[in-house]
Amino acid sequence: MSMERILLIGTFPNLTHLKVFNFGRHIALNYFTHQSIFQHIFKHQITELILENSDQDSGIILSEEYTANVYAPILTFFENLTHLSIVESSFISQYPPLSICYLPSNTFFSSILKKLCITVESINDCFHLLDGRLKQLTTFIVEIRYINNNSRIVHNTNDLPNLKCFSLTCYDETDAYDNQVIPILRRMTYLEKLTLYIRIRNRSTFVDGTNLHEDILIHMPRLRKFSFHIATEIRFDDSVHHLSDNDIQQTFTDIGYHQIACSVNYCRKYRAICHVFSLPFIFNRLEKITNKFPNIIFNHVIYLRVADAIPFEYEFFIRITKAFPSLKYFSIINVTPPLWNFNSYTADNIDSRSYIEYLNLTSLSVNYVDDYYIEQFLLDTKTYAPRLTEIKVHFHRLQTVTENFTRDATRYNCRNIKRLIFEKTMNYPKQLYLYFPSLED
């Protein structure tokens, strides 16, 4: 039933909270205007608004245009709005981000908004949202698409006395942590709750407990709860001392943080990565996990990307299924097979004792792997993935592993696949469609 049909049933004089599914530009232009038939409800009654945005960030629509026409009018039209959350309609979708850097300074302004949950295009938009246009903001939950060092804008450096809860998530790797992220966090001297998910690259040292204390935490004397996942990728040479997990763990113990886990991996020549995170792990996404990861359960993770130059042995995948019971989206990057002579040894005759179950897995990405890993997932004697419906793979590799779409041993695990995502579009052979009978057009 549509929102319009529901709201036409009665007058709803006590309605103050509204959640809109399948929100998009069409909803905003038809209902969030002064000509709306529901103006009396929206304009004066609604104090809390949650929008599940189903519009896709295709790159065709400019973010500034979308912001001016869809997001900005919301704060003007809903006169008593104190809580606004704009969230994804699904995990794999991305809606057009808020972008206000080059719009008038009174864009997206409110003197009463207390809570905002939104995705923005860049950290510059985050700076603008904290320039005084939302003075009563106490809770700010933001996902930032990218954080870079290209900003020429002079930002407000005043403290934010009303802000008590802040959450920053950026899935894209950044080399601007020290120049952009730390300055914005240092303004939050009254903060009581901080959540931080960030992936840092090209830094000279790992971000550890000592860094966090000196750069951020010492400036937040009222902080009561700090949840985080910080991944730092560094370059090093032979003169650099290799730090261990215990070395990193000790830096957190020294500042009174005991419920943390870490993993240091010198995974490639002259490159290393360090993951540090608070426990329990609250995030739903984890990237660049290597052969070496902590022996804990990541109950909330539904998206996982693993990558290493060292082969992933069969036991590694057994560990994955135990550590990530909710896994739905699995991406693997590894071009080295566990057995060097692939022509002599295949996944058929490796560790016949184990049978791996991925009970929630729906999407598998194996674009950048050796054939061994593709074979392992398709062999019905090795893998059981009853909900797997999507595979991202190179066509010729899939063709090889399935023996030109005739191999019986891999046929069963292909029966439910509805979507194959190849590197390019081409005319595929008839055998492909016979081998994958559930494929959708």
Percent helix among the residues?
Answer: 10-25%
Count every beta strand, where a strand is a DSSP E run of 2 or more residues: 18
Global outline: globular
Instruction: Count up the helices.
Output: 12
The CA-CA distance between the termini, in Å, is 28 Å
Describe the protein in words.
- The protein is an alpha/beta fold and 441 residues long.
- It has a domain of 156 residues.
- The chain is 22% helix and 27% strand.
- It contains 12 helices and 18 strands.
- Strand 7, helix 7 and strand 8 form a beta-alpha-beta unit.
- The radius of gyration is 25 Å and the shape is globular.
- About 1% of the residues have low confidence.
Question: What's the structural blueprint in terms of helices and strands?
Answer:
Elements: H1 3-7, E1 17-23, H2 25-31, H3 39-44, E2 48-53, H4 63-77, E3 83-88, E4 115-122, H5 123-129, E5 139-146, E6 165-174, H6 177-186, E7 193-203, H7 209-215, E8 225-235, H8 245-253, E9 260-268, E10 271-278, E11 285-289, E12 303-307, H9 314-323, E13 329-334, E14 356-357, E15 363-369, H10 371-378, E16 383-384, E17 390-392, H11 395-401, E18 419-421, H12 430-435
Parallel strand pairs: 1-2, 2-3, 3-4, 4-5, 5-6, 6-7, 7-8, 11-12, 12-13, 13-15, 14-16, 15-17, 17-18
Antiparallel strand pairs: 8-10, 9-10
